[in-house]
Amino acid sequence: MLTFDHVHFYYKKGLPVIEDMSFTIESGEFVAIVGANGCGKSTIAKLMDGLLLPKEGHVKFKSLDTSNSVDLDKIHTQIGFIFQNPEDQFITTTVMDEVIFGLENIRVPREEMRSRLDYALQAVQMEDYLEAMPHQLSGGQKQRVAIAAILAMRPQMIIFDEATSMLDPQGREQVLSIMHELHTQGMTIIHITHHMEEVLSAERILLIHEGRNEFDGDPLSFFETVPVTEYQLELPFAVRLHHKLQLKTPLMANWKEMISSEWFIN
C-alpha cells in the first residue's frame, strides 16, 4: 500500500535525517513508529503524506508517487494526517464547520456532507458538539474533532504523528480507543509515538535510530530482542511487570488482563 524505496532526506545538505530507508506497509496494518526525540519519526510521517519530498528514492502510495505533483493531490485525499497539536489543523469557528471544511474543498455534494458529518462525529463521540468552538474544548476533544475532520474525507490510511503526546491520560485513552476501533474496521493506522505503553497493541513496530530503520517486527519480538533503554526509550509497565514477576503467561498489552490470566492459570 505504502512503500519507501531507498529514501534519503535532509533539511541541510550534508546532515542526513533519513538514510537509505526502505519498507512497505500493507493495507489494514496497524504500525507503530518509535524512536528517541530527533531520530526522524515526524520526518518519516511527512514523507509518507507528501508534506516533504525525498531527496533520493521514492515514496509511493499504491501506484502514486509523492514526487509527481499530479499524484500528490490524489495522495492527500487518501491519507489523513493528525498532528501533535490539534489546533494546528483548526481553521473555522465551530465543530461542524471544521468537519465540513475539507468536504467543501473537494466539492462533496451538499446532500452528502450531512451524512459524512454525522458519521465522522459519531465515530469520535462528538455528535453533541456541533456548534461548539473547537478552541474552547478540552485537549482530548480537540483531537477527536481533528480526527472527525479527517474521517469525513474517507481516507484509506491515517497517520497519527505524536497525536497523544499533549493529552492527559483520559484524552490519550480516548484517542487510542478511536485508533483501535478504526483499525478493526479495516483502516490502515500509522501511530508515531515515544510512549511505549501505546505500542504493545500494534501489529508491527518500526524502530528508527539516527535516520535508519533498526527494527521491523511485532511488539513481542521487539521487547524481547531490542535493548529498548539504549535507544532512550522506556519499557512499558506491562513489560517491566512481566519481567519482575517472571510470569509464565504471554506478554499482553493490558497488564491487568495479563495478571488475571496468570492467576487463572495458577
Automatic annotation (TrEMBL):
GO terms for molecular function: ATP binding; ATP hydrolysis activity; ATPase-coupled transmembrane transporter activity; cobalt ion transmembrane transporter activity. Keywords: ATP-binding, Cell membrane, Membrane, Nucleotide-binding, Translocase, Transport. The keyword Cell membrane applies. Its main location: membrane. CDD domains: ABC_cobalt_CbiO_domain1 (cd03225). It is a peripheral membrane protein. One of its GO terms (cellular component) is ATP-binding cassette (ABC) transporter complex. The keyword DNA-binding does not apply. It comes from the Bacteria. This is Energy-coupling factor transporter ATPase. It comes from Paenibacillus anaericanus.
